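Build the 3D complex.
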Amino acid sequence: MTALLSVRDLSKHFRGLAAVSRVNFDVNSGEIFAIIGPNGAGKTTLFNMIAGAMPPNGGTITFAGEQIGGLRSDEIARRGIGRTFQVVKPFPALTVEDNVVIGALMRTNSLSDARTTASEILTKLDLIAKRDQIASSLTLPDRKRLEVARALATKPKLLLLDEVMAGLRPTETDRIVAILRDLNKTGLTILLIEHVMRAVTALASRILVLHHGAAIAQGTPEHVLRDPAVIESYLGAEAL
Amino acid sequence: MTNIWYHTNWRGKAICLLLLLAFVAAPIVADRYLLSVLILVFYFAYLGHAWNLLMGFAGQLSLGHALYLGLGAYTATALWTLFGVGPWIGVFIAIPVAAAAGMLVGWLGWRFAIEGVYFALLTIAFAEFTRIGFDHLGITGASAGLFLSVSSEGADKWWNLGGGPLLYYYISLILAVAATVLVAGLRQSSLGYRWLAVREDPEAAQAVGINIFRARMIAMLISSSMTAVGGVFYGFYYRNLFPSQVFDIGRSIELILAPIIGGLGTIFGPVVGAIILTPLGEGLTGLMQSLGINAPGAKLIFYGIMLMIIISLRPDGVWPWLARQMGLNGSRK
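Done.
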């Protein structure tokens, strides 16, 4: 397996605070890779650097053989990285369908092609019945799926998911888990930040644990979740 | 456009065609005064479209569109009075002049992340110092103004944009219709969707591969170019230009009222807004005159009150509500 995404010594400082310091990991083509860690561990900062929302202070990010660290987020999106936002950002006044059409327009200038892509994806994500609703009128679980749908419409090679399960009920979590598994089977590589361990263990082939901006453990779920350092800093003593 | 036309129900098509036919035939029955009011309706519908493209679609507030209006007006009229270059050629020089100014304002604002209210302030500043500049520009008459002779040779010919009210009536009608068609086409294009995305959430728009700087610059390019054409019309219709009038912030404000009242970001909002607002404003002026009251600010106060009433009753503007009342589909557009 070859690494689709390769992160080396990646660092980000906000004034004196090291939000992310010298983090290394590889995401292989076709896998589901999870990043976990307590609040404030630097997960979203790490994500934002990969997606181009903020430039790194040091280190490199290589995607499909190309250096992407410091590029603008639209340039990175065009290279094949789709993302969702932790605090959902649908285009509020537009319909569900138009939200996804805008994503699809990244790969085509034809509106009818974009609409076809959009309705395929909306069907896949169980949103097709709500295609004419205004995005701001959706419930949180629907908005989270809309974020995923819009990102998928850009036909990414790598999908970055920032806590898409947070705030969902277990049945809704299971539904998204099933959808993500299906997407992964079609060849999509997924990098996710998640607090819901139920989803992480169900999906991830490998896990990276961040704590105070540094990677404290990395490996398969069985290995990582038994690591004493991880249990102490994140999972809590009761997990022992 | 074809798409919108195709998706509009028969009722919408009928109303659209009837209205157009009525406007085309209006000069048969309308007197000079009514024609002059309708010219203003079309003029404000046209400029409303230009501004709405930038604000309603791309989400960028400009309170300095008088800059592009004034540059368009001054460029074409100065070319005519100084060099004898007719307006039909002059307009193609006026457009790049105003568009260059628009690009400069846009580049300064968006390249350096001056957003929202601060961007609006930047647009006001540019219009204001251009006004001051023209106040001291001797070649265009400085603050004493630039006048188009009505008696010089060829001044009353249509190819020099001179003539009676009918000429201006049909030119303003064509401008308004053409702008509506253009805006409808852009709204339904991939560019139009990108603008909406940038307006709704710039960060999310970038995450789906949209170059937000470029999208905004294109909106500015089209908006300032369209406004410049309106300026050429303004210059040759009124046949006199004063920096203190044409570059005034009042100009910038009056041209944004129709789209706000009609419905920001809608295709027919600027048209509906202009049809509602302009006759009321002109009627008020007429009434004041016949009563012998001299209150030059009355119209602006009236516009202000209208704006407050309509925005409090119909925050999305009149058009989306009106379209629903008339049973037209696509009221959001």
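The beta strands of chain A are 3-14, 17-28, 32-36, 58-63, 66-67, 81-83, 158-162, 189-193, 206-211, 214-219.
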